[in-house]
Design brief:
Blueprint lengths: L1 E9 L8 H7 L1 H25 L3 E8 L8 H7 L3 E4 L5 H14 L2 E7 L8 H10 L5 E5 L5 E6 L17 H11 L4 E3 L9 H14 L1
Parallel strand pairs: 1-2, 1-4, 2-3, 5-7
Antiparallel strand pairs: 4-6, 5-6
C-alpha cells in the first residue's frame, strides 16, 4: 500500500501569518520565521518521501501568491503535488487533503503542520510505520493542539465540531476517536513556535548545535 505526506501550510504573506509571534517580534520577523519553518517542514517531508518506496508528497497551501519564490514553487521543486486548501474551516480543509491523497492511491497518510521546529525525521518514519497497525496517529502540542495527524482512511468524525484554535483540540480529537473505537497512537508532545520565547529557544538550540 502506498503512503503520503501532506504539508499543510499558508503562503507566507506579510501580516497574514504567525499573528501571536508578530505581536512579539513584528510582522516582518514573524514572516521570516514562518517561511523558515515552512521550508524546513517541506524539506524534511521531501527527504522522507524520497527514502520510502511509493510515498507521495503533497503540499496543501492556503492563500495565493504571485511571487516567483512562493512556497508553492519551493514545494514543486521538492517534488510535491501542490493544491490549494478548500473548506469552511480548518477541519474541513484537512479532511479535504486526506481525501485527495486517498484519491491518489495513498492508504497511509500523515499530515504535518509547519509550526513545530522540534519535528524530526524519525517522527515521520514512526508515524508512517505505525499506521500499519493503527487506524490513526496524533502528535500533540504543549498548547493543546497537534503538530501531526495521520490515518489509514479519511475520518470525518475527527474533524467536525472541533473548537479550532483552542486548548482542547487534541483531547477533543482523541475523544472522538475513542467513541469511534479507533486504534490510535500518540507521538511525543512537541512545542509549536507561536511566541517570541519559543522562537528564541529554537534559534539558540541551532546556534549551540552549530
Amino acid at each position: 500500500m502506498s503512503e503520503a505526506l501532506i504539508v499543510f501550510a499558508r503562503e507566507p504573506r506579510l501580516g497574514e501569518v504567525k499573528q501571536r509571534l508578530a505581536a512579539g517580534i513584528g510582522e516582518v520577523g514573524a514572516l521570516q520565521a514562518y517561511r523558515r519553518l515552512a521550508l524546513r517542514t517541506l524539506r524534511l517531508a521531501a527527504t522522507i518521501a524520497r527514502e520510502r518506496r511509493g510515498c507521495r508528497l503533497f503540499a496543501e497551501l492556503e492563500g495565493a501568491s504571485t511571487a516567483c519564490d512562493s512556497l508553492a514553487e519551493s514545494a514543486r521543486r521538492l517534488g510535491a503535488r501542490v493544491h490549494r486548501q478548500s473548506g469552511v474551516d480548518l477541519g474541513a480543509r484537512m479532511l479535504a487533503g486526506f481525501r485527495r491523497a486517498e484519491r491518489h492511491g495513498a492508504a497511509r497518510v500523515v499530515l504535518l503542520g509547519c509550526d513545530c521546529a522540534g519535528m524530526r525525521p524519525a517522527d515521520l518514519r514512526l508515524a508512517l510505520d505505525a499506521l500499519r497497525d493503527h487506524d490513526w496517529i496524533l502528535g500533540p502540542t504543549l498548547d493543546g493542539g497537534y503538530w501531526l495527524i495521520g490515518m489509514t482512511r479519511p475520518l470525518p468524525g475527527l474533524f467536525r465540531g472541533i473548537g479550532w484554535g483552542g486548548s482542547g483540540v487534541a483531547e477533543d480529537t482523541r475523544e472522538r476517536a475513542r467513541r469511534l473505537r479507533l486504534r490510535g497512537l500518540n507521538l511525543p508532545v512537541r512545542e509549536d513556535i507561536d511566541h517570541a520565547r519559543e522562537l528564541e529557544t529554537w534559534l539558540r538550540s541551532r546556534r549551540d548545535a552549530a
